[in-house]
Structures are given as structure tokens and as C-alpha cells.
Amino acid sequence: MKYISTRGNEQRMTAAEAIIAGLADDGGLFVPTELPQVSMDFIAGLQGLSYEERAQRVLGCFLTDYSADEIQGCVQRAYGGGKFDSAKVAPLTMFDDVSSLELWHGPTSAFKDMALQLLPQLLSTALKKTGEKNEVLILVATSGDTGKAALEGFKDVEQIKIMVFYPETGVSRIQRQQMVTQAGDNVAVAAVQGNFDDAQNGVKKIFNDTAFNEALAKNQVRLSSANSINWGRLVPQIVYYFSAYADLLDAGRLQLGDEVNFTVPTGNFGDILAGFYAKSMGLPVHKLICASNSNNVLTDFLRTGVYDRNREFFKTITPSMDILISSNLERLLYHMTNADKVGGWMRQLADAGRYEADAGVMDRIQNLFWADWADDKATADTIKDVYFSKHYVLDTHTAVAWRVAQNYQKQTQDTCPMVIVSTASPYKFNESVLAALGVHTEGQDAFALLDKLAEYNTSKIPQGLDSLRTAPRRHSLVCTREKMAEKVMEFAQKKRN
Ligand SMILES: *Cc1c(COP(=O)(O)O)cnc(C)c1O
Questions:
Q1: Ligand 1 neighbourhood includes 423 CB (under 6 angstroms)
Q2: pTM, whole model, 2 decimals?
Q3: Could you tell me the residue ranges of all domains in the chain?
Q4: What is the number of the ligand 1 atom nearest to the C-alpha of 269?
Q5: CA distance 141 to 121
Q6: 27-81 pLDDT, tens per residue?
Q7: The domain over range 92-110+232-462 is classified in CATH as 3.40.190.10
Q8: Strand runs (DSSP E) across 227-353, as ranges?
């Protein structure tokens, strides 16, 4: 299987080459040239397997230039060895009416670990396979969770450096603490004065700056990304849709072939897009339900076909979804139409901040997706309701999805089993979660709040968060969007310790 750009550049790449490149030369995203199909036997065969075994089978459908042994090695290093605090890696907690797919048992307590533990393995294997001699510098713009998860995944990996930019305001106290204490001899962390889109646009600009990239090449450095635009970020996420389905089969909640719904708390459209790939491969998914917060640009798009980022930007209690440009939507559009149209729309988005997809494309999209959003109050109410009715503590992002799933069921009367994709441990967003539960949090230290939340939660404080109490600060760089390129160059030229 080969990979091509969403914007029409004809160059066909292997998965390994696409993962090294990150972004296509024409600014597009890499997509597979065909969507592999699996049989019901393939799905039935996932029953009773470990997450690692399921991952090997699903990844094998897309990474056709990797050997089975290479994939197995990557998967073991990513998900084995006790890095996840659940043996099931992505356990499904089942209630009478819904199930919660918990994607936050990895080292940083959020779902980005699912992809960012595997991506460095796929990338370092790709460097070996292609004989790449340059050092690879990973640039990441993060709204909070990606940064730490990428730092953890890439730290001390040979032939790779990583630099993470986060918005100075707009990440939680714990998220900031996680990043500024990051250890590793190949890591840099900087705060950008602005919001997530400023950081992300800054990074995109650096990727697209030919002169800058040539200057880096003189230093034997080439850029790559760990943002969810990298195919190596996206492909690991397809696995857990299959795994959830297999767990429902294992539990006798489904007959093989029965359809399920997934509700996904959405920001950059990576997580839910992986669900689209799973459905396209033949996983029996009825609807993919896209849940947004008050930055509901995707809700509007999926309902009307108009994508318009010219709107007020809200800071919410779900910072990982505070996004107005959902990069991965470009991949969906490509699969629904063609590169000419996608290229045009993306130019309009860059120039005017707006584009409108045509009715034919929207018919196809609306057949697959349903969309709604929840504001902060509805989110907090949902945390409280679910705690009191189920003794299950949700993080804020998961609560957005939970509320939207309820809205969907009420409005459509659809009775397919519902899986809610749970993207963060409540401990990671403890302040907002406690406030939702009616606990006074004003002026309290983030770690006192962890202890407080432990009184409500049946699951323990994750080790990665607990240990931050005493971790020393290692990073203090702050810069404007205009200075980002300069900081990247300084780091690229810096010798490893
Ligand atoms: C990144 C993130 C999301 C959004 O996922 P996308 O793939 O960007 O749509 C939701 N919740 C949490 C906790 C996240 O970290």
C-alpha cells in the first residue's frame, strides 16, 4: 500500500517514508491510496486476544512495508513492559446503557499515549528501513496533552530530537508541570505567547518554509511532526475501535456483525477520523458522533457544510478541544471527494478562514457522522450526574462526549450500543472535575486537589501525576510566535549532552 498527499502531489510513498516526512511537500496530509477491507472472520479472530496482538493485526493492514516482526517489536515496546497501568491497555468499562473506552492508562494519563508511544517506534524503524542519515527533529504544537505524551514517547530515542511548543495560557497547571519537568537529553520545551492555533500555525509555517528547511539540512537535520497530522500518529488509533468491538463480543454484549456507535470528544479530528478508517475497513459502526465544546466549528461544519473559523475563540474546561482548525478533517474530505477540491478548500481556509463543501460531499459525510456540542455548564452537569448515578468519575473531555451521546440517543431514538471514547483520566483535569462535583477548589494547590479527587475516585492517582510533586523544573523558555523558528534553529544546532 502506498500513501499520497490530500492536495494532489502525485508522489507515492511507503508508510515508512510518509511517517518520516510527516507532511507532504505540497502542504497536504498523507492518506492511504486504498482503504483495506477486513472480513467478519478477521473481526471474530480478535476476540480473546491481547491489545498488542490486536494491534499487530490491524496495523498490518496499513503498514504493508513493515515486516510482521518489525510491527510486533514496535507494538511490544509501545504497549508492553508495564508502561500502561491496565493489562488491557485500553479497557472498556461497561454500564447498562453505554460503555466507556478508557484510553488514558498510559504514562501521561491521556489518550495521546495510545498513538505517541507507538509513533517513535514506527519512526525509528522507518529511519533504519530507509537508511536515513540525517537527524530527525520532531516539532510539536500542543494544546496540552500531545506535548507531554510526545516528550515521553521520544525522550532519549537515538537519531531523534523533539521540541514542543505549548500556548502559554490555555493548558492546565498539571499539564504545564508535566512538560516543564521533562527529562531527556534530546528534548526542548517552549511556551508560546498566544493560543493553540498560534502555536500550531507557527509550527506549520516552519514546516513550509523552504529556506529554513534548507538551512537545517546543512546541519544534517530534517523536520518531522508528531502532531496528529503524521500518519504514524493516526494509524495506531484505528486499533482501539477494533479492540472495543472485540471486547463487546467477548462480553456477549454484541453478536458478530451487530452495529455500534462511537461518540468521540473531538479537537483536531484525529481520534474520530481513526474511527472513520475502522468503519471504512468493515468494522460494523453505525454512526460516528462528533462531540465538540463551545468551539463548535466542527458541529457547524458537519451540519451545514460551512467551515468557518472566523468566530470567537473560547477557553473552556476542555482545553484539549479548544481548537478552531481541525487539521485531520482534510483527510476525511479527501476520501469523500478528490485532491483538487480539497486543495482549493484548504487555500480558502488559509486565506479567508472559511470554505463550503458541496452538497454531494456533505450527503456522504452526514451519512457517517452526527455532531453536537456541550458548553462548560452542560459538561460539568454531566460529570455530576454520572458520578451520582454510576459512581464513575469522568474527566471534562469525556463528559462532553457523554452529554452529546445522550443528546444523540434522545434525538434519534437510535438504540445501537453506544461506546463513549474516554480520553483523559479525571485526575489530569482535577480542578474542573472537583468543581463540577461541587467541591470548593479556589486557591488550592494542584496536588492537594489530586488528593481530594482520590476521595471520590475508585481508581488511584496515576504514578506519572503523583511523581510531579517533587520533579525539578528543567525548561523555562517563553517566546512569541515570530521567534519560534529562531528557537528551533538554536535547538537543532545544539549538541546532545
Ligand atoms: C487530544 C484530545 C482530544 C481531541 O482529540 P483529537 O484527535 O484532536 O480530535 C480529546 N480529549 C483529550 C483529553 C485530548 O487530549
A1: yes
A2: 0.92
A3: 92-110+232-462
A4: 9
A5: 20
A6: 899 999 999 999 999 999 999 999 999 999 999 999 999 999 999 999 999 999 8
A7: no
A8: 260-265, 285-292, 306-308
